[in-house]
Amino acid sequence: MNDDIEKLLHHYFPASTYSKNDLAENIEKAKILTQEEDILPFLLTALLDEKILEVELDQSPDLYFSRLQDNIPQNQTTASPPITEDPKKQAPQEYMPGDYLLDFDHILALPLEPGLGSLRLRQSATIVLRMFTKDFGVELGTRFQDVVKVNDLPILQLAYPSILRIQPNAREFRAKVSERQEFIVEIEGEKHPDGLTTTPIDISRKGMALAIEKNIQKQLKVDDELFLKLYIEDELRARLVGTVRHLSRVRKRSGIEYSCGVEFKLTSKTITSVMESIVAATQRAHLKELAEIAASRGIDIMP
User: Fold this and answer.
1) What is the pTM of this model?
2) Number of domains observed in the structure of the chain
């Protein structure tokens, strides 16, 4: 069995090498997984938490981005069916989010951004999907199967991942912002002297990603300085300056999400402490939301 796993590792992660002892230890500690049922919770996490996935094609340094897509049968909802007293008369079980993954056959992904990635993906021998949790990174090896229609939209069908490996999370933790948190950011800059209001996508101690309109993104450029006011539940929590570090777009199930990555200028220990408390509050709100999703689905979801 370890020989088969070794072949998969060499196929999807040729730059990594494992001694026999290292391989056995990683398998024993569940840092390398190949059983479908062991991989399932990670896929459900990516789907239900709408995590952004990095997509690596044929070990190329060029990265693309996507999200997993559900496959709700037509004319069905995802609501729980009514329960009757007589088990024999129990209503048919309705589709639950992510149920198609239980077949261990394939996964569905939104078209890649930048768009050229979807074309490259079809000719790629290896596809690695990468997502990040609070404590570690997750890499999944898969391959292209087909382009299918879901709700009349072209969706990428990939093979159910044959291998998953857990890696140290080298980047700073970013807390996803829950819609329930009422987190608002007011932005002022040379191009926006009157200010504009938006919502953050995620936040770390050192920076944040902001959801912005396409026309606003076109007015910004890397290295622009922005003056930011952060409000949570109508309370002003911080004023600080940020520098635009990247301008991105990624697919959502409802369309394209345009974002602006901002690096904070942390000029004192006080503002650093304030940002740490905001990140902690944001993470608590997200964990609460995940706990509710997990309870309704009967699974564990990784933050």
Assistant:
1) 0.82
2) 2
